[in-house]
Amino acid sequence: MKRALVIAATVAVAVSTTVHTSPASANVPTFSKDIAPIVFNNCATCHRPGEVAPMSLLSYEDVRPWAKVIKNKVQSREMPPWGADPDHSLKMRNDRSLTRQQIETIAAWVDGGAPRGNDADLPPVPKFADGWTVGTQPDVVLEMPVEFSIPAEGELGVQMFYAPVPFKEDKFAEILELHPGNRAVVHHAGVFVVDIPEGAKIVDGRLIMSDGKASTDRGAGGAPRNGVGALPGSSKLLSWVPGRGVDRHRADIGKRIPAGKYINWQVHYNPTGRPEKDRTKLGIWFNKVPVTHELLIRQAGDPLATTRGGLSLYRAEGKEVEYTADEGTTRRRSKTPNIPPYAESWSLTGITPVTEDITLYAMSPHMHLRGKSLKWVIVYPDGHEQTILDVPHFDFNWQIQYELEEPLHIPAGSKILGIGYYDNSPKNKWNPAPEKEVYWSEQSWDEMYQPFTEYSVDSQTLSDITITKSQR
Questions:
Q1: CA-closest candidate to residue 331, choices 454, 217, 188
Q2: pLDDT 10s digits, 409-432
């Protein structure tokens, strides 16, 4: 919804804006030498044919009509989207924000008439694999087992699809990309590796229980709530939300896809006013060097995925919240109070004790339209605190995965805090109903709290990981 408004506004500005060409002086930056490297490196991932951005920016002819709009967007730091506060966050290896010098270069180019320059200075146009953000084709592409039809209207719960893992033995993925078949209807999606209950079977992509009824339980196989490997947190492969859908792990750290299990697609659709169809797919790039540790995914506030237990908790407005350790957002925090009407800065904090040494690689915030801010704080055993990621202005349209430039060692005895704030007041321009209390659910007009972390357990090595082989 918000993205459509932003695109429409951008197009309107572009149509009404004309850049007047003037002769370039020796001091004016040129597209070929100065602007193309910035645009190709920081913008082309989205601004290319077939991707989410409303226009391609792969040539001078593409960029020139949008010159003033580009200047305005980069000066306001609306583009490229990047929510991390650099003064209160660790350095990220995927930081796509522009430096002050790059912004000034773009402004000087536009103010100087946006000259083309010498084509001999033009860097090579970036190449992308068809339909994928990564520059090469995936080693394997898995599709949802069926194409799903979305009705024109109504409210849909999360749709569950299942298919056997197609590998004869465990595989480790260095890169995973979830690619919606129809972005207009996919609100969010997650892919898990699960077991299915005894006596159940898969029919046309649906899980049919022993009583003959189709299951819609997000934890029916037990795995989304826990794990299918040696540790909890091993079942989730990755998520797709606006702004993210690619997880890039380290060369020797892999996300395990165990043989003999099932791929569970969990997709939430939003009707658009007309019938639609979707068949989302998953691209997998395998680790090319020996894997030393298995990548795990949990969120601040959940029990840590280690071999040793620990009591986690949530705090709503500073008060402890009773919750159940279930995977569904609504069930997990069944006792979390709703956000009251007109609350301008309502807080929810998840606290996870680190029960044994871990290494942290990446974090990603997920909230909905009232989401205001989310930050990760590590409290070390000696009591000192370190803010490792601060997203002070959460944007529902750009829920970015923040990848640490250097993995962070977190010793046992520490705590991971995910501190979130919500704005249910009229000051929040995206708030659909500030006069109503807000419930916890999958719909955009409800809310979620999911500060995801990606990490490995230091004591676990590849020799400890049981590699399964399929009997099928």
A1: 217
A2: 999 999 999 999 999 999 999 999
Q: Among the three residues 294, 309, 331, which one is the final residue of a domain in this structure? A: 294
Same domain, residue pair 269 and 360: no
Counting the structural domains of the chain, the total is 3
Per-residue pLDDT of 172-221, as tens digits, reads: 999 999 999 998 899 889 999 998 888 888 999 999 887 777 776 554 43
Inside any domain, residue 206: yes
